[in-house]
Write a structure and sequence with these properties.
The complex is a heterodimer of chains A (247) and B (688). Chain A has 247 residues and is an alpha+beta fold. Chain A folds into two domains: 98 residues, Ubiquitin-like (UB roll) (Roll), CATH 3.10.20.30; 129 residues, Alpha-helical ferredoxin (Fumarate Reductase Iron-sulfur Protein, Chain B, domain 2, Orthogonal Bundle). Chain A is 34% helix and 11% strand. Chain B is α+β, with helices and mostly antiparallel strands. In chain B, helix 16 runs antiparallel to helix 17. Chain B has a five-stranded parallel sheet with strand order 5-2-1-9-17. Chain B has a five-stranded antiparallel sheet with strand order 11-15-14-12-13. The chains are: A alpha+beta (247), B alpha+beta (688). Chains A and B meet through helix 1, helix 2 and helix 3 of A and helix 3, helix 5, helix 6, helix 12 and helix 13 of B.
Chain lengths: 247, 688
């Protein structure tokens, strides 16, 4: 297969970026999108040019590090996949593919397609945990039965990989899906109840302080989320937030 | 006044009377009966009082299960902690990718499990090459891990009654594995990450993300800090501390293709090794039997399909060579073969454990069939993992539960698929995404791949390396899994070390550090280490040859896989050593690294890591050459039973190989830690 790639190049946060064009041939349909980038970078390096910087690590869709905005979609075409799990068979031979970084003022560009997502870490630090020490001197794991449905819903919310596709795809750069996934997970479990009010207040405040926008219920985040995190989490977080504000 | 006395690791332990003194490492295992050692040790260990803990700085390198859990625990205790990770966030550490589960001897299923049985299974699974006392401690604290994780809000799988669910893993006959679908590592890591985040918010932990440890700094024989590189700016930094803990994971990427993350590397461990930390059993790496096979030369990594699939999947190849050929050519579909035309070779060879034999056994059996010509994909290096009978079995149960009278075959299949989907849905989706095959309709194709390093930095019972003040936890150390790790035990060990072992044992050393005061980085040792790092980086970037670093890495991987992979022999290992040396020479004469040293430069990061892999690879071959027996994942062709099973040589090799670096990667010195089994009968491992 062959492709024309239009890739965003930007040397650093402060420098001006631009789209550059590359042509690739001999691409196998079994390659992952990132392996196609490996091939391109190999070529650039052998030509003594600057390779394209992009984040990636596990390459099996779970670490949340890869983050490419492909043809106007976070993680490209296909649902429930990260960029690393996207394969070239999803494209047509001869396609022109546009690749850009996540764009949000809360995710400043480090270089090319690499952005800084530490705002997400700071949101978790503001309250995305149960305040229990790691002494091991807790009660037996089976002391509190948890209805399977609740445990499963908590798990579904907890599968968020923190990649930031929701922010990148939202016209408001809202981080509501990410934040609500953690709020939901903990509010669905008895262990997280005690500090539920504080948690949601602090996380929402931190989210606002980081410069993420508001949610206007377009639902784009849910569509692009590689883990299929549901919009109902946002509704649940709003309820939790209301409850904590009046309670 | 410095009161610390350098422990003498070369002192033989009391039980080693009559053994050659000079070559024996002392693991400093507490005396007393096995089941009392840990409690007794905890009772006798030196403590640091809360006020003094505030005067002590600890550096943790790595933010996976071991690193995050250790950092959170130590910070809660009052120590000042700095955590370093090379990723953009600590939540990306590769523990996140562990799929199947975590073992604990809870005996919730009432199937006869106990601390002793978990201990027994782990020592036997490790082919009697792990340290008895460490493994017992691991089994002992396993239950607390589950309690702890549930308290943190880890959403484990549950039964309809609301209690925790379990499943089985290879090499055991009980159900003791706790899980969260196929994403157990993710959920446990996010639990540890939340505990870490909580301490960051309290100011007890300073997080340095996108920072890589470049070297350990040793002053007067003790670890006193590290040299780190800010990966965004390229700045080289000095960080002092009273103790340094390496939680830097395994070194499977020495093979280039593995189930490890792209960034997983051995550099922290290797730099520590070059500063005096012995490297234990470097050749012991685990080859996982169920991975998606290689599809082409551009392949950048291999993806695991969880061992939990072997609960329900049956592994087979065609019985006839002609059928295998036809399948490879795409002329025959696996579904066309009748039961009697299939060879369920694990069930045939190992009736007692069947498809749930340990990983090393399953991997070798797959290689054996493929070597004989029965492989089922284009490259001939794949076997089937088939869910058809599980789908039918579950379908029947489900039909009966729903009171369906005489359900049709297709009804049964549909019901069965739904059950399988609920158990393994995400794995099936992942498989389909990568291969474009639908595993609900046609069997998966799988092949073994490098997965986990049982070997690692040598540590004593306190998890301290041979450099006082330098610790290693999780996959980075060598201690608990012997020559083969059982499934769902890596998560257990990472969290055991971080939550429940290291926080106690580190006090024994730090109690003597309360009067030391802050560690100054303005010393000749820090300066020398920093200059050395800078010189290495300059050398890499100024080589200015023609070949990108990945090219060297890929070639090293091929050498390692061919000669130091699933099956090894003397001739091949000797050849590999020569090839690696040649490749190393070429690396330093023809490498090309683009960009600048003082900049965000992923190619330079890779070059720094591959330079270390090129030395570690040689040590692995030297170690494999030294160990003339077969054991666990280490299969020496010269040492096998008539039936082709691994044959140990207990008289000569019941020891841990601990290698000392002496200035030249080709000339390490071997030290031995003799292993003694007082509480378990050592016998030929059998799963038949």
């Amino acid at each position: 297969m062959q492709f024309t790639l239009k890739v965003w190049r930007q040397k650093s946060q402060s420098s001006k970026g631009a789209i550059e064009t590359y042509h690739l041939s001999d691409i196998s349909e079994d390659m992952s999108f990132l392996e196609m980038f490996d091939v391109l970078n190999d070529k650039l390096i052998r030509d003594k040019k600057d390779p394209i910087a992009f984040d990636h690590d596990c390459r099996e869709g779970i670490c949340g590090m890869c983050s490419m905005f492909i043809n106007g979609e976070a993680h490209g075409p296909g649902r429930n996949v990260t960029t690393c799990q996207l394969h070239m068979r999803s494209f047509k031979d001869g396609d022109t593919i546009y690749v850009e970084p996540w764009r949000s003022s809360a995710f400043p560009i480090v270089k090319d397609l690499t952005v800084d997502r530490s705002a997400f870490d700071r949101i978790i630090q503001s309250g995305g945990y149960v305040s229990v020490n790691t002494s091991g001197a807790t009660q037996d794991a089976n002391a509190i039965p948890i209805p399977k449905e609740d445990a499963d819903s908590a798990f579904d919310a907890a599968t968020c990989i923190g990649c930031g596709a929701c922010v990148a795809t939202c016209k408001n750069s809202s981080a509501m899906l990410f934040v609500s996934a953690k709020v939901s997970q903990l509010s669905l479990l008895p262990q997280g109840q005690t500090e539920a009010n504080n948690r949601v207040q602090r996380m929402v405040n931190q989210m606002d302080a980081e410069g993420f926008g508001n949610c206007t219920n377009t639902g784009a985040c849910e569509v692009e989320c590689p883990k299929g995190i549901s919009l109902t989490n946002i509704a649940r977080m709003n309820r939790e937030f209301m409850k904590s504000s009046v309670g | 006044m410095n009161t610390f006395k350098q422990p003498n690791w070369l002192d033989p332990a009391p039980f080693l009377e009559g053994v050659e003194r000079i070559n024996t490492l002392n693991s400093r295992i507490p005396t007393g009966p096995l089941e009392q050692k840990w409690e007794k040790h905890k009772g006798e260990i030196k403590l640091v009082n809360p006020a003094n803990k505030r005067l002590i700085d600890i550096i943790i390198v790595g933010s996976g299960l071991a690193g995050s859990s250790a950092a959170a625990s130590l910070a809660e205790m009052g120590y000042n902690v700095k955590v370093f990770c090379f990723q953009d966030s600590p939540r990306r550490a590769h523990s996140i990718a562990a799929q199947g589960g975590i073992n604990a001897a809870k005996n919730y299923q009432n199937d006869g499990d106990s601390t002793y049985r978990l201990f027994y299974d782990t020592v036997k699974g490790g082919d009697y090459r792990s340290r008895e006392a460490n493994v017992y401690r691991l089994a002992e604290v396993s239950g607390s891990i589950i309690d702890q994780c549930v308290a943190q809000g880890v959403p484990f799988a549950r039964e309809y009654g609301g209690l925790l669910d379990n499943r089985s893993f290879g090499g055991v006959q009980v159900s003791r594995t706790f899980y969260a679908k196929g994403q157990t590592g993710q959920q446990l890591l996010l639990g540890a990450y939340s505990a870490l985040s909580r301490q960051i918010s309290k100011g007890k932990i300073e997080l340095l993300n996108r920072h890589e440890m470049m070297d350990v700094v040793v002053i007067d024989g003790k670890a006193r800090g590290i040299i780190a590189r800010n990966l965004v700016t390229g700045e080289i930094q000095r960080h002092g501390a009273h103790a340094v803990v390496l939680c830097t994971g395994g070194y499977g990427n020495v093979f280039y293709l593995s189930t490890n993350a792209m960034g997983s590397n051995s550099s922290a461990a290797w730099k520590a090794h070059k500063r005096g930390a012995y490297f234990g059993n470097p050749n012991f790496v685990q080859i996982h039997p169920t991975c998606i096979p290689v599809s082409g030369h551009y392949q950048s990594k291999l993806t695991l399909m969880s061992e939990s699939l072997r609960n329900d999947g049956r592994i087979w190849v065609p019985k006839n060579l002609d059928d295998a050929q036809a399948i490879r050519n795409g002329e025959l579909s696996p579904n066309d073969l009748e039961e009697n035309q299939r060879d369920y070779y694990l069930e045939r060879r190992y009736p007692a454990f069947g498809n749930l034999v340990p990983r090393d056994v399953a991997s070798r059996a797959a290689k054996e069939r493929c070597d004989e010509g029965y492989g089922v994909n284009k490259t001939g290096q794949a076997v089937f993992l088939d869910f058809a009978s599980a789908i039918e079995r579950y379908g029947k149960t489900e039909a009966s539960t729903r009171n369906l009278k005489s359900p049709t075959k297709s009804q049964i299949i549909e019901l069965g698929k739904a059950v399988v989907k609920s158990k393994y849905g995400n794995l099936f989706d992942m498989y389909q995404q990568i291969t474009a095959d639908n595993p609900y309709e046609t069997p998966m194709k799988i092949y073994p791949a490098i997965h986990y390093s049982m070997g690692g930095i040598w540590v004593d019972y306190n998890l301290m390396t041979t450099i006082p003040g330098l610790y290693a936890a999780g996959e980075a150390n060598f201690s608990d899994h012997g020559a083969n790790r059982l499934g769902a035990s890596a998560l257990m060990q990472g969290l055991a070390d971080g939550y429940f072992v290291l926080p106690y044992t580190i006090g024994d050393y730090l109690a003597d550090e309360i009067r030391t005061g802050q560690i100054s980085t303005d010393t000749i040792e820090f300066e020398q280490a920093e200059n050395q790092v800078k010189a290495t980086l300059d050398k890499l970037i100024n080589t200015n040859g023609d070949i990108p670093v990945d090219d060297f890495h890929r070639r090293l991987g091929l050498i390692m896989w061919e000669y130091c992979g699933m099956s090894r022999n003397e001739k091949g290992l000797k050849k590999a050593i020569i090839l690696i040396k040649k490749l190393r020479d070429e690396f330093y004469s023809n490498l090309y690294v683009p960009g600048d040293v003082n900049d965000f430069n992923p190619e330079l990061e890779k070059a720094y890591r591959v330079a270390d892999f090129l030395e570690l690879g040689e040590l692995m071959c030297i170690d494999a050459l030294n160990r003339k027996e077969s054991c666990g994942g280490h299969f020496r062709e010269e040492s096998q039973t008539d039936e082709g099973e691994a044959l140990r040589d207990d008289d000569n090799y019941t020891y841990v190989s601990a290698w000392e670096y002496r200035g030249d990667p080709s000339d390490p010195k071997l030290h031995k830690e003799l292993l003694k089994y007082d509480n378990i009968e050592v016998k030929q491992r059998s799963y038949k």
